[in-house]
Design goal:
Structural class: alpha/beta
Oligomer: single chain
Radius of gyration: 19 Å
Helix content: 25-40%
Shape: globular
CATH superfamily: Ribokinase
Order of helices and strands: EEEHEHEEEHEHEHEHHEEEHHHE
Largest sheet: 10 strands, mixed
Strand content: 15-25%
Length: 312
């Protein structure tokens, strides 16, 4: 079983409008809602691929109750800690030509007692899991250490872990030496105050993450070419060309695809290709992290993977 942790989930609403204009009233054509957040997205895609998974994290207030209902309607196994801090909402205004405008509410900081409760829950789930996935941002200082604690718990239980975050929560989590790390370029640059421009910059960034103790390092860049590595081996990965309808969750689909590959016993290079195909398949449709195996396999052969080296 794969346990995913989302510290800062979101009720993701899509509002369909004829045309978005500033300074006026809009009458929506329709509205759709889905539970959002990196870890939740990974669980959704894993479930679609037939991998047992459970989602945990923080949920609070009426919005949190809606997220729980939506997860139950998806038949997604979940075990969240309820907090006094209300779960945030995200609004995406979608126009008929495919143009979209998104706005996410800021998170509310959770209570320290809730952070302790989640850590205890992760400890219980770790004993039943094969992987722990730490995904997304932290809602505040009280929760920043949870990814670190989760990765330590993974080590204690002899299981693997993924860290896909940024900022202080990522820096702390990295100190616990996760099995795999997957920030995107923007998140890496923001966290470590670096600018990545050349291929050598990207490969050195991948190497830096490996030097912190990760076994697998992946540095994505939206739907563009990205870089990955294990100790002594580095790859440049070019995803299949695709017209992006909704790139939201493509990085999460990539993580789920790689974990699916590991569950099949594939080598890392094959896992990378399948993960890149999963990310591309996700971007082709509006629905997030919910593509099937055949859709992903149909794109896998279009992924290009090249070996690269670290230049001194």
């Amino acid at each position: 079983m794969v346990t995913t942790i989302t510290l800062n989930p979101m009720l993701d609403k899509t509002i369909y409008v004829d045309r978005l204009e500033r300074g006026t009233i809009h009458r929506a054509l329709k509205m759709e809602m889905v539970a959002g957040g990196k870890g939740i997205n990974v669980s959704r895609q894993l479930k679609r691929l037939g991998i047992n998974t459970i989602a945990t994290g923080f949920l609070g207030g009426e919005v949190g109750s809606i997220v729980l209902r939506l997860l139950t309607e998806e038949s997604m196994e979940h075990d969240f800690v309820r907090t006094q801090a209300a779960t945030r909402e995200g609004l995406t205004y979608l126009e008929p030509d495919g143009a979209w405008t998104a706005m996410f509410e800021p998170p509310l900081r959770v209570e320290q007692s809730s952070a302790h409760e989640l850590s205890r829950k992760i400890g219980e789930l770790a004993s039943k899991s094969t992987w722990i996935v730490c995904g997304g941002s932290s809602p505040g200082d009280e929760a920043d250490e949870i990814f670190y604690e989760a990765i330590v718990l993974a080590h204690r239980n002899g299981i693997s872990s993924v860290l896909d975050s940024y900022g202080r929560a990522f820096e702390l989590g990295l100190k616990a030496k996760p099995t795999m790390v997957k920030p995107n370029k923007r998140e890496f640059e923001m966290t470590f105050h670096q600018s990545l421009t050349t291929e050598s910059d990207h490969v050195r960034a991948v190497q830096f993450l490996l030097e912190q103790g990760a076994q697998y390092s992946i540095l994505t860049n939206g739907g563009h070419m990205f870089y990955a590595g294990i100790q002594g081996h580095f790859w440049k990965v070019t995803p299949p060309p695709t017209k992006a309808v909704n790139p939201t969750g493509s990085g999460d689909a990539l993580v789920a695809g790689i974990l699916y590959g590991f569950h099949q016993g594939w080598k890392f290079e094959r896992c990378l290709a399948f993960g890149a195909a999963a990310g591309a398949a996700n971007a082709r449709v509006w629905e997030v992290a919910n593509t099937n195996l055949q859709e992903i396999l149909s794109l896998e052969s279009s992924v290009k993977i090249q070996r690269v080296s670290v230049k001194k």
